[in-house]
Amino acid sequence: MDVNTAIIVSMVIPSIATVTNLIFKNNPNLRDMLTLYAAGATFLTVLTILWEVGNSTTEVFALFEIIPGIDIAFNVEPLGLLFAIVASGLWIVTHIYGMGYMRGNNEKHHARFFSSFSFAIASVMGLAFSANMFTLFGFYELLTLSTYPLVAHKGTKEAIAGARTYLAILLGTSIALQLVAVIWTFTIAGTLNFELGGILEGKIAGPMVAVLLALYAFGIGKAALMPFHRWLPAAMVAPTPVSALLHAVAVVKAGVFTMLKVGIYIFGIDFLAETGASEWLMWLAAFSIICASVIAMTKDNLKARLAYSTISQLSYITLGMALATSMGVLGGGLHIAMHALGKITLFMCAGSIYVATHKTNISQMTGLGRVMPITFGAFLIGALSIIGLPPLGGSWSKWLLIMGSADTGQWIMILVLMASSLLNVAYLLPIVGKGFFVSDPENVGPVKEAPALCWAPPALTALGCVIIFFFAGDIVVFLTPLVTP
C-alpha cells in the first residue's frame, strides 16, 4: 500500500478494535485476540511506512479543508514516525500485559476498558502523523477524552475524583492556553503547517516570542511541567495497564512529542536560540526535574513514586527543546524511546507485584524479590535505564542532553542532569534492595510470581532496555533530519 493509505490504515485498525471490543464483550477470548491482532497489524502498518519512507519527510496530503488555510492533513517525518513506532509496538506488549492484569486481578468491564484503550491508540496514530498544528490539536483532545474512562475505570469515589482532576487540567490547559497559542500562530503566520525551521521567524519579535512559547508550554498539559502536573499523580488511581499507557505509550509522550514539534516546526530551533525566548523554559524544566525527583523520594506508594519520576523524566525532553541546540533536540527525541521502554517496565512490574501480593506501598515489599525474581530483576533493569547507567538505553539520551547543555555553556544544566541521576538512584534502587537483600519471611508468606501474562511483558521490555543501547546511534541518525536544514 502507498504511504498515505498506510497512515489512514494505522488509525482505522485501532478504531475497528474499539468497536469489536464492544461487539464481542461477552466473548472475552475472541475479543482480546482480535485486539491483539489489531495491535500487531497496526505495528506492521507503521513498519511498512518506515520501510517505504525511512527518515525522509513525505508530501502533505489533506483529508479535507476546514477553512481556507487550515486542513485536516497528514504526512510522515522522523519524529512522528519514531513516536508511532514506539506507541504501536508497545501497544502489543501492553495489551498482553493488560489481559493478564485484568484477569489476574479480577477487574470488571474489560470490554469498555480495552475499547477505550484502542481508541487512545488510534488518537496517538493521528497525532503522530499530523501535518499541521490544527490536526495535532484535534487528536490531542481526542486522546484526553478517550483516556478519561480509563482513569475513572474502577468507578470508586477516588477514581472519579482522580479522573475529574485529570480531565479538568488537561482540557483546561489545552483550551485556555494551547488553543489561544494556535489561533495566535495562525493569525500572525497565516499557516499552521509544520515546516522545518519554523513558521514564526520574521512574524513575531521581542518578548512576545517568549509569551507565545509560554502559552504552548503550559497549554501542552500532557508534558506535565510544573505547576500543571497534578493530573499525572491523580491518574494513578487507574488500573496499572492504564498507568503504563499514560506514562510510556500515549499520553505523556504525546505531551513531550507536541512540545518538540512546536519547538522544531513552529518556532524553529535557530529562531529560539537567536531570540533566547526558551531560556526561561529551560530553567523551569530544570526545576521540574529536581523538584519532582525530591517529591518522588517521599512517596511510599510505588505508583505515586513512579508518577513523580515520570514528571521529572518528561522535563528532560522539554529541556532538550529549550536548549535550542541540535544535541538537545536529538537527546530529547531519543529520550522519548528510551524512557518509554524503561518506564513501561517499571509500571508493569508494579502491577505484577500488585496482582501477586495486593501490596502497593514500598514499605510492604521487603523480601519480595526473593520470591518474585523475574519481576524484581526486570524492575532493576528498567530502573538502571531510567538512571542512565550503561549498557542500558537511558544512558545515551542523557549523554546527548549533557552535550547539548555543554554546547550552550549551560553548566548548571549539566549539574541538574547529574544530580537528577543521583536522585533516580535514591528513589528507585532502594525498592530493589528491599526486595532482594532484606529477608522477611512473615511478609513474604506464600507469595510467588504473578501469572506469566503479567511478568513476561516487563521481562521483554527490560530486555529491550538493553538491546536499544546498541541501536541508539541508529535512532540518532534517523532523527538527524530534524536538525539538518
Commentary on this structure:
This protein has a domain at 278-485. It is built from 21 helices and two strands. It is an all-alpha fold and 485 residues long. The protein is 74% helix and 2% strand. α14 packs antiparallel against α17. Strands 1-2 form a two-stranded antiparallel sheet. β1 and β2 (70-74) form a beta hairpin. The longest helix is centred in the middle third of the chain and has 33 residues, at 157-189. The model has no long low-confidence stretch (mean pLDDT 90). The chain has helices spanning 3-23, 28-53, 78-104, 110-128, 133-151, 157-189, 207-219, 231-234, 240-249, 251-267, 269-275, 279-298, 302-323, 326-357, 368-371, 373-387, 394-407, 411-437, 441-444, 452-467, 472-479; strands at residues 61-67, 70-74.
Percent helix = over 70%
Please give the order of strands in the largest beta sheet: 1-2
Count of DSSP H/I helices = 21
Are there runs of 5+ residues with pLDDT below 50, and where?
A: none
Mean model confidence by pLDDT: 90
Strand content: under 5%
Major sheet size, sense and barrel closure:
2 strands, antiparallel
What's the total count of β strands? 2
Q: Radius of gyration over alpha carbons?
A: 21 Å
Spatial gap, N to C terminus: 30 Å
- Following the backbone from N to C, one meets helices and strands in this order, namely HHEEHHHHHHHHHHHHHHHHHHH
Q: Choose one word for the global shape.
A: globular
